[in-house]
Structures are given as structure tokens and as C-alpha cells.
């Protein structure tokens, strides 16, 4: 139970890196001597020091002599290769830490057990697989990125108690203020947000994080019919944006737009926009997660083609009586989390594994 408590602390620390480390994993590390934490850290930013390094650096000078008698807890296997930083396994060995406890083995082929093997060969006692399922859930984006070789796809929608997304041809606010803040937190933790042409036109969304804090994710929209007005937020060029399905031609009120936008990229498509093409473009751009916010047609495409890993539904207690029908939750979805936010119920589903 003591080991599990410290691994849980690693999870808590690792979560602090959400939105800042992708496509790297979320990792936290804790150093313990005689049941007392003497150091802790997490991977704070992509390309910078890993959790183990930050953890060791927090040990006070008067506690440095305790390292050869301490246990290092880490939710993911320490790396064993040179990347943007040196191998963490080498640092652990150099510090003469005698015991290491981890939750998950790193699925990356550059690691994949080699870090733990290096530690064992150096005489370090290794315990692995502690709270393994919880660790995989924490790092589900990373595991999808490595094992599926594509971004993790999260579908999100808000619906009324009687199952409607909103009124037809009208912008309809459903969820409450706390839920709105939660959604903006989710946005800040993802790499890209996608909406369809109808949602972009009717709702005129900003797709930003103004009700939370953190980085602005890449905005993506469909616009095969050139319907999004230049006055809409998605074409304000305020942040990086991809518009799929738009020919690079002087049309309507946007003459020579390919040359007048700096952060907005217009991606030509022929025929139907394929989800596989979007995911491939995101992968090439090192974007590890895609947050799909609708509308109904776009959500339906992802559900029908099976390109989804997680579904997040915010259901408000009020009833609309009529409108756009919300998608059905697939039978392959498993409820992972549920909680109440005022008059909203939040449910998170994951795809079940065979």
C-alpha cells in the first residue's frame, strides 16, 4: 500500500504537465527515504528535463547522502537512450539509488524495457506494474501515439437531458459556466481542435482557452463550400488554423487569401474530406491529440469510421424538446469517469479493448 501511495503521487505530479509535453508522456517522479518524500518532480515541457532529473534536483543538499538508501517512484519506465536529454537510467545509476518502482513499461521501441533492464544489470531492485491500468489511462494519449502511430481522438459534445445538441440553425448554449471552464481546460490540454463547416458557420466558435489558461491548440475546420465568412473568428488569423476543403482561389470577400493570412493554412481537398488524411497531417506535424467538438455530422463520421478513442459528454438537466439529435454512445464504449458540475453531468467513455 505504501508503494501505491507514492505511485499515485507520481500520477498527480505527472498531470501537471498536461498540455505542455506532448507528444512525450506525462511523467512524475518521487524520491522516498524511510517513508518520507525527499524529492519530487515532473516532466514540465517537451524537450526539457525529464521527471527523474527534476526530482533529483529538488533533493536538498543535506539529504543528498540519503540517495543510496532511497527508493525512486516513477509512473513510466526511465528512458535508456539519448534523445533531447541524456538517459534517465544512467542518472539513476550514477546517483546509486538502490530501488526503483514504476507503473508502466514505456511502449516506445527506443525504450521498451531497456531502461528497466539497464537498472537491473546495475544491481538496482526494480518493481514494475504497480497501478498499471491507472498509469495507462493517465498516459492514454502517449500510448495511442506510440502503439497506433496516430493522434489520440477525443469526441466531445454537450447535450440536453432529452438528447439534443441544440436547436437547428441556431446557436444554442447548453452547459453551465463550470462545465464551460472544464471544456476550455480540455482544449488547453490537447494539440488540435476540430469542428465541421456547419458548426463553424452557425456557432462562429473561437476554439480558444479564454475561460482557462495554457497554450492555444491548433484550430481545424471544414469549409468545402467556402461558407465561412472572413469576419468569423476562425478566419481572424489570431492563432494557427487549418481550413480543410478550400481551394486557393480568389472567392467571395477573400481575394488572394492564401497570401494575406500568416497563421491560417488552407488545405485543398478533392471530394470528401477523409479523416485518415487529417490524422496523417497531424502526425506529420507532431500533434498527438485531436479534440473533436462537432457538430453532429462530423462526430458521426468519426463514430462511423471507428476513429475515436475517447468520448466526453456534458449533459445538462434542462430539456430542449426538439432539435439536432445527439450521437449514440457506441456499444464498445466503457464508462471510465463520471461526476456532477451543478446542473451538468460529465461522463467520459473509452473504447473497450478486446
Record keyword descriptors for this entry:
single chain; 354 residues; alpha/beta; Cytidine Deaminase, domain 2; Dihydrofolate Reductase, subunit A; 9-stranded mixed β-sheet; 11 helices; elongated
The name of the CATH architecture of the largest domain is 3-Layer(aba) Sandwich
The average pLDDT is: 91
**Unreliable stretches:** 249-253
Structural class: alpha/beta
CATH superfamily of the largest domain: Dihydrofolate Reductase, subunit A
Shape: elongated
The ordered string of helix (H) and strand (E) elements is HEEHEHEHEHHEEHEHEEHEHEHEEEE
CATH topology of the largest domain: the name is Dihydrofolate Reductase, subunit A
- What's the CATH first level of the largest domain? Alpha Beta
Please report the total strand number as a whole number: 16
Q: Can you count the helices?
A: 11
- Give the strand order of the largest sheet, numbering strands 1, 2, ... along the chain: 11-10-9-8-12-6-13-16-15
Spatial gap, N to C terminus: 30 Å
Tally of structural domains: 2
Roughly what percent helix? 25-40%
Largest sheet: 9 strands, mixed
Q: Beta fraction of the residues?
A: 15-25%
Rg for CA atoms? 23 Å
Structural description of this entry:
- This protein has 11 helices and 16 strands.
- It folds into 2 domains: 2-146, Cytidine Deaminase, domain 2, CATH 3.40.140; 148-351, 3-Layer(aba) Sandwich (Dihydrofolate Reductase, subunit A).
- With 354 residues, it is α/β, with parallel strands linked by helices.
- It is elongated, with a radius of gyration of 23 Å.
- Mean pLDDT is 91; it is low at 249-253.
- It has a 9-stranded mixed beta sheet, sandwiched between helices. The protein has a 5-stranded mixed beta sheet with strand order 2-1-3-4-5, with helices on both faces. Strands 7-14 form a two-stranded antiparallel sheet.
- Helix 3 runs parallel beside helix 4 (114-121).
Amino acid at each position: 500500500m505504501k508503494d501505491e501511495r507514492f505511485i499515485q503521487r507520481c500520477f498527480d505530479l505527472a498531470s501537471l504537465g498536461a498540455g505542455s509535453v506532448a507528444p512525450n508522456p506525462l511523467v512524475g517522479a518521487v524520491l522516498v527515504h524511510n517513508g518520507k518524500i525527499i524529492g519530487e518532480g515532473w516532466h514540465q515541457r517537451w524537450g526539457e528535463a525529464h521527471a527523474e532529473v527534476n526530482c533529483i534536483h529538488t533533493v536538498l543538499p543535506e539529504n543528498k547522502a540519503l540517495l543510496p538508501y532511497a527508493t525512486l517512484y516513477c509512473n513510466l519506465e526511465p528512458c535508456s537512450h539519448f534523445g533531447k536529454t541524456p538517459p534517465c537510467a544512467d542518472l539513476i545509476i550514477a546517483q546509486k539509488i538502490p530501488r526503483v518502482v514504476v507503473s508502466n513499461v514505456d511502449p516506445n521501441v527506443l525504450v521498451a524495457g531497456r531502461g528497466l533492464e539497464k537498472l537491473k544489470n546495475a544491481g538496482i531492485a526494480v518493481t514494475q506494474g504497480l497501478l498499471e491500468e491507472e498509469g495507462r489511462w493517465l498516459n492514454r494519449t502517449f500510448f495511442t501515439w506510440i502503439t497506433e502511430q496516430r493522434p489520440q481522438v477525443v469526441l466531445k459534445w454537450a447535450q440536453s437531458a432529452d438528447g439534443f445538441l441544440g436547436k437547428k440553425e441556431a446557436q444554442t448554449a447548453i452547459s453551465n459556466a463550470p462545465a464551460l471552464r472544464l471544456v476550455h481546460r480540455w482544449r488547453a490540454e490537447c494539440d488540435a481542435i476540430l469542428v465541421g463547416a456547419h458548426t463553424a458557420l452557425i456557432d462562429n466558435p473561437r476554439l480558444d482557452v479564454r475561460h482557462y489558461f495554457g497554450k492555444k491548440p491548433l484550430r481545424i475546420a471544414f469549409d468545402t463550400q467556402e461558407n465561412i465568412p472572413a469576419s468569423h473568428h476562425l478566419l481572424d488569423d489570431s492563432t494557427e488554423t487549418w481550413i480543410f476543403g478550400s481551394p486557393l482561389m480568389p472567392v467571395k470577400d477573400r481575394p488572394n487569401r492564401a497570401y494575406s493570412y500568416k497563421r491560417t493554412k488552407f488545405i485543398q481537398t478533392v471530394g470528401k474530406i477523409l479523416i485518415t488524411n487529417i490524422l496523417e497531417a497531424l502526425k506529420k506535424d507532431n500533434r498527438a491529440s485531436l479534440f473533436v467538438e462537432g457538430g453532429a455530422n462530423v462526430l458521426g463520421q468519426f463514430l462511423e469510421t471507428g476513429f475515436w478513442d475517447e468520448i466526453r459528454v456534458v449533459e445538462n438537466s434542462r430539456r430542449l424538446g426538439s432539435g439536432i439529435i445527439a450521437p449514440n454512445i457506441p456499444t464498445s464504449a466503457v464508462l471510465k469517469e463520471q461526476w456532477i458540475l451543478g446542473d451538468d453531468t460529465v461522463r467520459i467513455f473509452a473504447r473497450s479493448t478486446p
